[in-house]
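Please produce the structure of this protein holding N-(aminocarbonyl)-beta-alanine.
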Amino acid sequence: MAKILIHSGTLLSSSGQTLGDVLIEDEIIGAIGAPGYFSEVASTCDKVIDATGKYVLPGGIDVHTHMELPFGGTAASDTFATGSTAAAWGGTTSIIDFAVQRTGEDVHDGLAAWHAKAVGNCVIDYGFHMIIGGVDDAALDAMEDLTNNEGITSFKLFMAYPGVFYSDDGQILRAMQKASSLGAMMMMHAENGPAIDVLVSQALERGETDPRYHSLTRPVEMEEEATHRAIMLAKVAKAPLYIVHMSAKEAVRAVVEARDRGANVFGETCPQYLYLSLEEHLSKPGFEGAAYVCSTPLRSREEGHQDALWQYLRTNDLSVVSTDHCPFCMKDQKELGLGNFSKIPNGIGSVEHRMDLLYQGVVTGEITLERWVEIACTTPARMFGLYPKKGVLAAGSDADVVVYDPNAVTNIGVATHHMNMDHSAYEGIRVNGHVDTVLSRGSVVIENNTFTGRVGHGQYLRRGLSQYLI
Ligand code: URP
Ligand code: ZN
Ligand code: ZN
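Below is the modeled complex.
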């Protein structure tokens, strides 16, 4: 049995921190002990990692990625191999990607296509949510099969993108009723797509073609209204609801109200909505702003969305931070929207930076160390049926472990990142803290600023039901 000892680190959990040692046996955490507790077995270990002065935390879980997603006339530029490698560099040891059923396609065919992309190509463990792009009787039956037999217990619908992924309210209600009967989680892209399409056409007619019009034609009200409508539909269906990639504070307010009346409604945001803005990024001169086109869009800093999102993270009104990693290169991809913002592929890539960027929230006093672990590791695991296999340092859990050095720094940019992107939304930013060592199921995948993992090590995660539902 291979044994690894990580000793003298500050062990972090969502509920506290303590000095201690972690003994790893093959793929599993064998035991956690007080400092020095395992000193007698240290000489029998295959590897000993000194974590003095460093944090030791569960591997990050990014529950919202889009590797190789065909979208916007092109496809997301990270494969499962490149994207999962970049994730590992950043201290993320599990991803949940979105398998896709398009309108008119069989759900099982869509799922099989996603398995084919991922199998044998991941460095870290991976699971799938299923995008249901055409709610009909067959798709509803498939939801049941996926939940009961395939380890896919969460389904994303879109109130946006008419003609691509869009579901109307009747379809949404039917899918929510099915999810309710299964105990499955409904995930919602909450923006009023048909109304946005009108605003986009009108803007283009006025000659408003620059990237910033992407946000101006997707006003806060379109997110707020759709969020409220999704919550009402979920109430009628008695279904749990997880609103993805929230950027507008008014929309989160609707989540707060639902949670205050005890509803199983959860909100997710992403680093881009905490750090980037309409004024400073999407409105960069020329076509530069295209790098920041994503949906929901970046919001105005003057209106205070970013500060409000941090506050909602502190108060647990927002439960999870994922990346919505959907990378496109500027060349040949974002450039599809030169002269017409509506043709810019929607998405920002940051799977590599989520743990570091959220740690900045600790450095700047926005969140505590414990909350960092909670929103990036533990809650994602519980929300999507992976706990306690993932998301916690505990005897019996998978040995997905990050040693994090708070005294080192990380320089973010295209010269240093490992994502398959020709630009970075965080170019030139120097952050406090650095991912020191990463283990995925007991295998060291990052050490001494070197990748030591293996494409194909990552295994498919069959997930259970959400562990938050009451
Ligand atoms: O802009 C985004 N968010 N692209 C990815 C697709 C989605 O809606 O999550
Ligand atoms: Zn979406
Ligand atoms: Zn997404």
